[in-house]
């Protein structure tokens, strides 16, 4: 478990995002501290990715602010990345016709100082910067287990390795905070376990991680804290144990009966009536037999 005595790398205060009359995110506060892994969960449509987009400058929040290491960030994605926040996406967004190494090099653009003329003239300074970027990119490919695929086209990688490549490209900007949007979506258990180990390794390097995921076992095994969004609002935040035992979280995922909803007896009566109507139409069993069959099925289900 990571301690949180240091100043946060991320401070989101009262973040609200409206699209016309729809409020997708409402007054969400969230802090992430150095070396900490924080999970963000919630049912589909809860506003998780919208909140991520507000953090990374893809959306301009209607209200609230986002600060990185105490400095409020401008709502421009490249400036957010330059400040020290990187992200992956729910849907893989690699450059399909570029090699694995070239994809990672793209992520270095905010950490290089060479301009257009330097690139055109290819002077000594440019060559040194290019060599340094390639060396750093190869370090990240080694770190993510993709070094032997450096010259492969990214589109030819298996799905799990494409996910790893997205993470390597995000790490190429040397972020202090990494945002992962459903990093294990579509993965098998072995790939999920490998991703979990990779995120722990990233944390051990000192990078804070904020992760959206629907795989609850992955989230609760991974995270120091978990925040739950429901209908755009933060419902609860705490350790995995606290969140798992919160009745509001269970209700949000499993649903709660609405007022006046039929109970077991009423449901049995409806089923019996439907069974009776079916057998009556076919000249089969009597209504009493249908009722007994329904009761037996109900008892077996219990």
From TrEMBL:
- Bias class Low complexity marks the residues at 273-286
Under the heading CDD domains, the entry gives: ABC_Mj1267_LivG_branched
Q: InterPro entries attached here?
A: AAA+_ATPase, ABC_AA/LPS_Transport, ABC_transporter-like_ATP-bd, BCA_ABC_TP_C, P-loop_NTPase
Q: Which Gene3D superfamilies match?
A: P-loop containing nucleotide triphosphate hydrolases
Q: Where is the ABC transporter domain?
A: 10-256
Q: Where is this region: Disordered?
A: 262-302
UniProt xrefs under Pfam families = ABC_tran, BCA_ABC_TP_C
An example of a Gene Ontology cellular component annotation for this protein is: plasma membrane
One GO molecular function term of this record is: L-isoleucine transmembrane transporter activity
Per UniProt, the keywords (alphabetical) are:
ATP-binding, Nucleotide-binding, Transport
Q: Give GO terms for biological process.
A: D-alanine transmembrane transport; L-alanine transport; L-isoleucine import across plasma membrane; L-valine import across plasma membrane
PANTHER family according to UniProt: AMINO ACID ABC TRANSPORTER ATP-BINDING PROTEIN, CONSERVED COMPONENT OF ABC TRANSPORTER FOR NATURAL AMINO ACIDS-RELATED
Q: What is this protein called?
A: ABC transporter ATP-binding protein
